User: What shape does this take?
Amino acid sequence: MKPVGKTARASLDPTAKPILCAVALCFLHGAWAQDSPQIVWQGVATNGYVLNSVAISPDGLYAASHGSNGIQIWRMADGAGVRSLVGHTFWIGELAYSPDGVYLASGSGDGTVKVWRTSNGSLAYTISNLVQAPPIAFSPDSATLAIGVGSEIQLRGVADGSLKGSWVATPGLVAALAFSPDGTLLASGAGARGRDTALKTWQVPDGTLRWSVPTAQAYSIGVVAFSRDGRLVLSGSDYLYSGPMQAWRSSDGALVTTFPESVYSLAFSADGTMLVSVGTNITFWSAADGRVVKRYPDGPYAGPNQGPKGIAMTPDGYRFARSRGFGEVLVGTVPVWIHSAARQNGQLVLRWVGGTGRYQLQRTSAFPADWHDEGGILTTNAAVVPTGASKSFYRVVSLPQ
Assistant: This one.
């Protein structure tokens, strides 16, 4: 394990622009971070290479990654190994925590899904006779586990794995699943070398098809995700050459935007303001309009020897975890990003996401120029900004914990 120190104040992103200028006040939305992630810790799993999934527990305390046939549980604070979950007989391709934090599910190349108790790491049950590394997704109420089994989608009871329903979803193989935040829809993507590259949403629990749209993922759709407000569905591929990430309107499948990058994995911040993806880069995006907040180069295409990568964010929005080939897991600090500045009860309120949880508001009268601290250290993600000053630029700097 190799802990790495954090930089308290780093250079300005030169692409940053004001998000709002009113009453001579300007707020810089760009991420105040260095050109590589501020690394909290990084380590290598003891149980083989990591494939395409890393999961963070709902309380943000633990991260799970996988290797050849075991699951590694890490402590998010410092990278200490908590336990290994061993029982699969082949590589593991899918990991998901139940939203209530009671279970961790894993899908393996041995054709099983195992559901583990997070309290002590014991095995709750195994669902057998599936396909290699079946995709999995928990419903928001933690009562249902969706599994892709060949061309079918199965709904299982989380408590005991009992079958609740199933339907045929594709002529290919179901490769990705995600529930909407209210649990009424399930999005699916398919693989199998271009046999079906349509993004689909289904009514839960009866499996009625709501809509199906062709995507830019020409080879397979290996990742799908709903935005936190449920208005968008995002699609991406397990293969960087298969097409860029796209966002679709969940109500009718209308294309909202095509992003300029292909991705292995993606995740939304808990407040829904930020999106993070990993492909050739680790990129943080504005969830509202798709602007780049911060982009970190993350090496070339991983290739078959390393496999794809996984990405996840803690619920508090302060840290992210990235997994990639040969068991490498990296945990870094999410860059600070001012996402809104609005009047509220006669005052101007600045809101941001990312950082360490300790912040300093700074002001300058000219830009670029020297910055000066404004007020004391903040431990919230919002600040009231004075409206009487003229020619003022504001920024938020993340401080060491």
Residues 1-24, 301-305 have pLDDT under 50 and may be disordered. The chain has two domains: 2-33+337-398, 38-333.
